[in-house]
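Changelog-adjacent note: as of this version, every example in the card shows the full chain rather than a window. The one below runs 492 residues end to end.
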Amino acid sequence: MKRILFSLLGVMVAMGMNAHHFAEVNADGDTIYYNRVSDAKYGKAAVEVTYKGSWYRAFTDNYKDTIVIPNTVKHGDTTFTVVGIGEQAFSICHELTSITIADSIKYIRNAAFKECRKLAQINYNAVHCADLSMQEYAPFSFANMYWGWYEYPEGRTDYPDYYHQEYAMKELNIGAQVEHIPAFMFYGMAGAAGVADYRQRTTVVKDSINGIESINFLGVPKTIGDQAFRHNMKLYSVTIPAGVEKIGDAAFADCDTLTKVVINAAIDKVPQYCFMNCHRLADLTLPSSIKGISYKAFANCDSLIKMDLPLGVTTIGPSAFAGCDKLARVNLDKLTGLTTIDGYAFSQCLVLDSVKLYNQGTGVTIGNYAYEDCTNLSYVDLKGAKQIGDYVFSGCRNLKTTVVPKTFLAIRQNTFRYVDDTMEVLTEDDESRSEYAADPHWKRFFKSPAGVEQVSKKKETDTNRSYKTVRDGQIVIQKGDRTFNLLGQEIK
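Full-length structure tokens:
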């Protein structure tokens, strides 16, 4: 009985030590471990790269230095196609410095490169790898993360020193044949290192960890997936090549060090959340093909000083530039086809001092809260507007002058909430002035609306009344039938 028991135990140990199906040496002399893949869509002769043994922590540093994953591997009489990188395959390979991912790779599983804290270079060649989902742990997320775990002696309350690591991530090379950069693939390559106390169940962060420094496109991928590069905290500049057909939502969101972006791709919109929270983004080039700026595309990009939107832009989406608190100028007056400025689009743009819409036939619809709390805003030209929502200029306490279109523009009770009654409303003629002055929401900006109506009816005989108005795009002073510029010179 004992003999049988020991024999079974030996089999179990052997299985535990050799859970990978086989190992082969690649062209560089490095041993790579493989599991056969049972998924029928990859065929019978398909394998994925895995770790040595039955558990990813069974052997540390399975892979070191530079590893090149081959497209195929021969084992016995069979040539297998390498279709994937398994879960935790390279996890805790602390001495891995460079990885080359084969063209043939179709998927990369959760945490495949977790804690590869010396990984400095990724050569990514997978032609069309599968997207990950938000629920999955991105393969390179926190690739450089390292935690020191300590259980303190009784009575000790301070945190001991941990082993400081130099986090090496530098370079991501996207291969010439790559067609698709998967969703979430390079997400979250930033984090923190710390120490933890099991007994106290507390953790203290000791160091920050930064993501990739540069992305080099050696070819032209057709698509970039959702959140593909989100939350890389050491990425300074990105140039997206011409030929890219689609950029996913939040593709570069939360890249806090990103200062320069050049998009050469002929895309028709900037996707939602695309550069949200890129706090240092100051230099931006968009292609002329852009028609729309989507939801929160540049929200909280608080280093943007000016925004030269492509002249074909027709729609500025909700919260597109919300919280861009250094944005001083936007070229709306050049956008001949602009139809929509959605709600909160420019809310809390704290240094924006003026708004002027292009005055064209179709008119622009401005959504609720579009310029809420733009506290430096002093001049607004709405001649190009056809519809305006509620709370649009709420909190714009320094707003001094608003120019309105000749065709009456209705507002709501709180469109100018917290704007002082002394704001001037400039109209194009006496008739429209009377209409605005009589409106229950506009009239508070006219000191004597009834008097204005009365004067307008006998304007031919009254030469003493004067008011500011707009002629040919210029602010002038109208006194009876005579017109003067702001220097007091009569205009014939």
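Structural remarks: Residues 1-17, 144-151, 159-167, 449-463 have pLDDT under 50 and may be disordered.
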